[in-house]
Amino acid sequence: MKNYHVLTVKYLGPTDYKGSRVVIRSDRFKKSKTLSFDYTTDTLGTAVNYLESKGFDLVGKAEGKDCYYLISNTFETL
């Protein structure tokens, strides 16, 4: 069975002090990256654009109750 790196993507709504954000979490490396929401796309698009710009090879996606999961062949920290 092939091993993959699973990343969790969640939308964070705006607050009184910060605009909308997207957080990407890697449980494998115990790291996360918070991004400003890209209004030209959506939550998943914001995360995908960022990860691909960092060289991540994304091979799949899944939807959770309140998040997305991105599946990658890249085993690098965020």
Descriptive keywords:
78 residues, mainly beta, 14% helix, 40% strand
Q: What features would you describe in this structure?
A:
With 78 residues, the chain is mainly beta. It has one domain. 14% of the residues lie in helices and 40% in strands. It is built from one helix and five strands. The protein has a five-stranded antiparallel beta sheet with strand order 3-2-1-5-4, with helices on one face. A hairpin with a 4-residue loop joins strand 4 and strand 5.
> Strand order across the biggest sheet?
3-2-1-5-4
Number of strands: 5
Low-confidence segments, ≥5 residues, pLDDT <50?
Answer: none
Q: What structural category arises from helix and sheet content? A: mainly beta
SS summary, helix count: 1
Task: Write a compact overview of the structure shown.
The chain has 78 residues and is mainly β. The protein has one helix at 43-53; strands at residues 5-12, 21-26, 31-36, 58-63, 68-72. It is built from one helix and five strands; from the N terminus they run βββαββ.
SSE topology sketch:
Blueprint: E1 5-12, E2 21-26, E3 31-36, H1 43-53, E4 58-63, E5 68-72
Antiparallel strand pairs: 1-2, 1-5, 2-3, 4-5
